[in-house]
Design goal:
heterodimer, A: 91 residues, mainly alpha, Helix Hairpins, B: 146 residues, 61% helix
Amino acid sequence: MLAIAIPVSLAILGLAFLLTLVRLVRGPSLPDRIVALDTLNINAIALIVVYGISLRSTVFFEVALLIAVMGFVGTVALTKYLQRGDIIELN
Amino acid sequence: MQTVVEAIVCVLLLIGSLFTLVGAIGLARLPDFFMRLHGPTKSTTLGVGGIVLASVIYFSANSNFASLHELLIPAFLFLTAPISAHMLAKAGTQQRVPLAAATRGRPPITGASADKRDTREVREAHPDSQPQVADPNPDGTPAQDP
């Protein structure tokens, strides 16, 4: 049962990746592309967790957590740059 | 017992990946930046929650201990997804991205770009959203002092 559900889940996640990539390429404005990048991050986390289930190994948990943290920091930095023209305002 | 656990894991995997697909379809198909922001920020977070729950159940059933530390991922996502969505909505408002024609009302414009705001365009697009100033003399006759 799991041998069917894991490839189906991987295929659905790949389709979600493709649709998000369409928005990343097409997206008319810059915030659209940032939303697409953020969604790609979250999709990558889901894909890595499903891949860890299929390999029966728990080492992919740290990878997923690192991608979550780095994706959040990247999104916040990009939106901060878009809003203020600077990321770390020292003066 | 093993079959029941496998069935639960399969259902959670399919639910999670379908939620992620719904978010991606919304990101690809919706007509407006704010609608596109609304779509994936909620449903993909829920999809990752379902998939990680499937992983927790699977690894807890196959080992002697409950591997609850994987729940850190959806906890972190539930914390950070509203923050990034809020910052993205602020950035989109400040960039004045085009809105869909069916959108009623306009987002408030604050900050440095507020003085560059074109109020005439807003008033023409939405005549009844502006406060009506009562005309003291509609006939054109000069007002008389009491």
